[in-house]
Specification:
- Belongs to the 3-hydroxybenzoate 6-hydroxylase family.
- The chain has 9 helices and 13 strands.
- It is of the alpha+beta class and 323 residues long.
- A 7-stranded mixed sheet has the order 2-1-8-9-10-7-11, sandwiched between helices. A 3-stranded antiparallel sheet has the order 3-4-5. A 3-stranded mixed sheet has the order 6-13-12.
- Bound molecules: flavin-adenine dinucleotide.
């Protein structure tokens, strides 16, 4: 990993394995991850482009799902993994996620003849502004820019030319390779996302499941991306939930509600502290005070921070799923 300041000065560079033998980074393109997971399933298992419009309980304990194309489905078990604006979470009584005061531009630089970077995660820290990039394949490099916009994230923008322009304006005069990455990103890969989270306070927040409906991933625990753990936690949730459900289904339908509750109880101590920690880390990284940023760049990052303990949260052993 290499951490640089906005003027291109290297603040610190290290290998994960030198800091902590258990650490490594793997950058995966979202599309590839989703295709890989979907391809493991029998054909026709996933019905794409099925947007949930309405959900309601039915009298026999099943759940009625109404899709926006008019189709209705009667489900014995519903696993809501429908992201930060989850209609299922809303139906279960969860509040809207809260805006953290900063937003992110993201994109994927494409180099058809091969990208020029080493297998490094690169961060660049400015004031109230930070960026990063990491190769995700021999021809593609993911990049992001996080910037403060405290009062509101501003209007939703879909015009790729405007998104690209705004992203470039933020990092004008920053290292040239970042600007080039933005230029090399196809329109459809560039997006802007307001960063949000929801803290699952015990006693105040509803549990992860109600009857035979359960939440997974961002639908349950949206977190800011400052620890790079949102998707990782969604995958962990899935493995733990699968194990609980597989055992319950073997024991009969009566065990299912208990299994969903047990999943929520097991996962809460993992996801709640991570959500809080990600938020606090974000507040530190988005500092814009000149003196504080100077101390961060000249003392804290180069001399004080030991990365092993800081990255300890990435260690989680799901144990393999058995057939
Ligand atoms: C800037 C940024 C950087 C990030 N970096 C990282 C990182 O480095 N590492 C990491 O682990 N995580 C990272 N994350 C977080 C990660 O993207 C999310 O945690 C992850 O995508 C959550 O997965 P999910 O399946 O729960 O939700 P999503 O990926 O949001 O998927 C939800 C799905 O539900 C669908 N859906 C929504 N509404 C409906 C509906 N009404 N009916 C049917 N379907 C619906 C959506 O179309 C989508 O396909 C980052 C996030 C951001 C914003």
């Amino acid at each position: 990993m290499a951490v640089n300041s906005e003027d291109g000065r290297e603040l610190r560079s290290f290998k994960f394995k030198d800091e902590d033998q258990t650490q490594e980074v793997r950058a995966v393109e979202r599309r590839i991850l989703l295709e890989t997971l979907a391809n493991e399933l029998p054909p026709e298992t996933v019905r794409f482009s099925s947007k949930l419009g309405k959900i309601q309980s039915s009298e026999n304990g099943e759940t009625l799902l109404q899709l926006t194309d008019g189709t209705t489905l009667l489900a014995k078990i519903v696993i809501g993994c429908d992201g930060i604006r989850s209609p299922i979470a809303k139906w279960m009584g969860f509040s809207e996620p809260k805006y953290a005061g900063y937003s992110a531009f993201r994109g994927l630089g494409v180099y058809p003849d091969g990208q020029p970077f080493a297998a490094n995660v690169n961060y660049i820290y400015g004031r109230g502004l930070r960026a990063g990039y990491v190769p995700v394949s021999p021809t593609k490099v993911y990049w992001f820019i996080c910037y403060n916009s405290p009062s509101s994230p501003g209007p939703k923008i879909t015009d790729p030319a405007l998104l690209r322009k705004q992203a470039k304006e933020l990092v004008n005069n920053w290292p040239e390779e970042l600007i080039r990455l933005i230029d090399l990103s196809p329109d459809e890969t560039i997006s802007k996302t307001p960063l949000v989270d929801r803290w699952l306070w015990p006693g105040l927040s509803p549990p992860a499941s109600a009857s035979k409906v359960v939440l997974v991933g961002d639908a349950w625990h949206p977190m800011t991306p400052n620890l790079g753990q949102g998707a990782c936690c969604a995958l962990e949730d899935s493995v733990i939930l699968t194990k609980k459900l597989a055992n319950a289904i073997k024991s009969g339908p009566a065990a299912i509600e208990g299994a969903l509750r047990a999943y929520g109880e097991e996962r809460w101590p993992r996801v709640f502290p991570l959500t809080v920690r990600a938020n606090l880390v974000g507040s530190l990284l988005q500092w814009d005070n000149q003196l504080v940023c100077s101390i961060r760049n000249n003392i804290v990052i180069p001399k004080l921070v030991r990365l092993g303990p800081v990255l300890e949260h990435t260690n989680f052993e799901c144990e393999p799923l058995k057939a």
